[in-house]
Structures are given as C-alpha cells and as structure tokens.
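Hi there. Long-time user, first ticket. I'm pasting a complex I've been working with (about 270 residues overall). I'd like to know whether the download I got is complete or cut off, because the file seemed smaller than I expected. Thanks.
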Amino acid sequence: MNNDLLFDFNVDKAAKTVYITREFNASQFLVWDAFTKAELLDQWGAPAPMRAKTKYMNFEVGGRRFYAMISPDGQERWAVQEFTSITPKTNFKMYNAFADKDENRELPGSEWDYNFSEQNGITKVHIIIFNESFERLEKLLEGFKIGFTMTLKNLEELLVTLS
Amino acid sequence: MKQDIFQAIADPTRRAILTLIAIQALTPNAMAEKFDMTRQAVSKHIKVLHDCELITPKHSGREIYYHFNAKKMQEFDHWLAQFRQNWETQFNQLDQLLTTIKDQTTK
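Hi, the file is complete. Here it is re-exported in full:
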C-alpha cells in the first residue's frame, strides 16, 4: 500500500455504523468505474484468497448486482446489492443482503452509502455502512476465514512437498 | 438465540450500565436505584447484556453481582480489526488494478 494515501476505518458501535475513507491515486472517473462496473469489481472486490464473481449487474436505480464470494476450495457465498440512488461519478447508495444461489435474500441486510471526490489527481472514497448487524458481519468474516484457512492448508501441503 | 452485540450496545441505558459496572460490579437492585428504573426494566437490560456475554453474574451470599466482561469487548475489537484488515487487502488490490489500467491507457 502507498503509505501517503489515507485509510481510515472507524466503527460507531452504538450507531451500528462503519465509516471507511480511502484515497486512491487515480482520477474520480476511473475509481467510480472500479466500484460500479462488474468486470472491474470482480478483479478486486474480495480479499485474496477469496474472489468475487458477478452473475449479473444492472447499475441503475432499482437495479441489482447478484454476485458470489468464492473461497479457494470453490465454496460460493451469494449476495444481492440493490441500487437505491445513483448520482453519477459522485455518489451511489445500495442495500446489501446475503442470498442463496437462487437469489432468495436473507433479510435484514445493510445500507451502504459511497461518496467520491477528487483533489489534485487523488480520489477520496468515503463509505458508510449502516445497520450491518454483528451477526451478518460475523458471517461475512466467516467466509473470509474459510478462504484464509484453505490457503494456509495449501501452503502447509506445499511446504511438506518441498521439505 | 444469540444476541447481537451491536444491538446490545446500541441502547444508551445499556451503555451506561456497562460503563458503571466496568468500574464496579453491581447487583440488579443497585442498578435500579442508580438509573431510577424498575427492577423489571433493569432485568430486561441485564438479560440482553448477559445473553451476549458482555456481563457475567457472580453469586455472593444471597446477592448476584454483575461484572463487566472486558474479554468479550476485546474479542469484539479484535474481530473488528480483522474486518478492517479485509478492507485493507481489497483496497490494496484496487490500487494495483488502478495502476494497471492507467498503464494500459498511457501506452
């Protein structure tokens, strides 16, 4: 990570709200695309070793993105994002909920609010995640943990073959 | 049902109870007095806090004293740190992607 770029992560536990601010060394147009186009989202939208796979995405108000986080052993965890408001290049809001592979949503979900602004070629993205319940977040993390555990297991096996 | 810890600390009265017992373990009666609440109302709050293990009861003679479970709060903080780490990993991936795209467009 470029250490000159800001990364803030704050949680207001009482308000059940997560605040994330991150700067990127790219134009606002490019960063906006990276957050709103499926082919780009799938290239970074899951922490390695997990990967993201979008089944379809209609980026318009009332439209949806139906996607999965896939762990190294092929386990899929599906989720639906519903876009509730879009102001091109500067803001979009969505409602995120876990789902099964047939797109049946598990409610409640959480509300996400993304803001984009650019200054001197650096784009600042401010994300507010509201009402994400602890258990939902836990579930999200569980998925990541599965991915990491798998990777460590693969590494162990590799080390065994190398030693 | 397992209590949601966010839900437990979203209530101002429960936060006040936690703040108080972090300093000193209290009986339900003592809480009711301090907050000018009925025993019944206090019991409800205690149940929520107890269900998500933020407080632990200890019997002392005929009284029950509730203690603050700092370990649970630390677990919660640790868990949030992991969540932050996931975001950091993703954003670093995005940095690389943005660099790649910029390189492609300037060629």
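A couple of notes from our side: DSSP finds three helices and eight strands in chain A. Residues 47 and 74 of chain A are 15 Å apart (CA to CA).
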